[in-house]
Amino acid sequence: MPLSSASQENSNGHDHEMATNGAEEIDESLYSRQLYVLGADAMKKMSMSSVLIAGLGPCGVEAAKNIILGGVKKVTLWDNQKASWFDMGAHYYMKEADVTSSRNRAACSFEQLKELNPYVSVELSDSAELTEAMISEHNVLLLSDTLNIVGQDEEKLLALGDL
Q1: Which terminus of the chain has a lower count of CB atoms within 10 Å, N or C?
Q2: Whether 4 contacts 20, CB under 8 Å
Q3: Whether 58 contacts 90, CB under 8 Å
Q4: What is the enclosing helix (H) or strand (E) of 17?
Q5: By its UniProt entry, which Pfam families does this protein fall under (predicted)?
């Protein structure tokens, strides 16, 4: 399955050839291991998927890295927490300056994550809250650090599960 000659502008501002040809063909040289394990149908579905990752602490940033390298169509990063010393212990994109300036955790890793795979559009949400409208724009919602996102509000957590 050859690489399409179509071009798209990624969120990093560079033109790159697409990894799929209208979701019909997948670049075997880029995704050969995944094609072998998952199969072409699963890879086609992944290449058309949009993922919202809520919570970019150490676990969330690791999940984001793997999802982006996996080749989904779009990843949106969202977090309502500021960088902390606790995060820095395992958050490999966070720097001391991020903590001392109280930078948003999603913003700390955005630039590095969007460079991982030129075929994946990576966006940074600046929304103060995780909304139903944001969630409905995506095929998958990944919640990491859930208690930081919804606090102890059990009803809000259950409502997210119903979406």
Answers
A1: C
A2: yes
A3: yes
A4: strand 15-17
A5: ThiF (PF00899)
Domain definitions of the chain by residue range: 46-162
Give the helix/strand (H/E) hosting 142.
strand 140-143
Tokens representing residue 39 in the block: 């199969």
CA distance 50 to 41: 16
In sequence order, which residues have a C-beta less than 8 Å from that of residue 53 and are 6 or more positions away? 60, 63, 64, 67, 75, 76, 77, 78, 142, 144
22 neighbors 8 (Cβ within 8 angstroms): no
Classify domain 46-162 at the CATH topology level.
Answer: FAD/NAD(P)-binding domain (3.50.50)
* pLDDT tens, position by position, 129-152: 888 899 999 999 998 886 666 555
Q: For every residue of 110-127, which 3-state class applies, written as one string? A: HHHHHCCCCCCEEEECCC
Q: Are strands 7-9 and 15-17 parallel, antiparallel or unpaired?
A: antiparallel
The number of angstroms, rounded, from the C-alpha of 35 to the middle of its chain's C-alpha atoms is 20
Q: What angle do CA 117, 122, 127 make, to 5 degrees?
A: 160
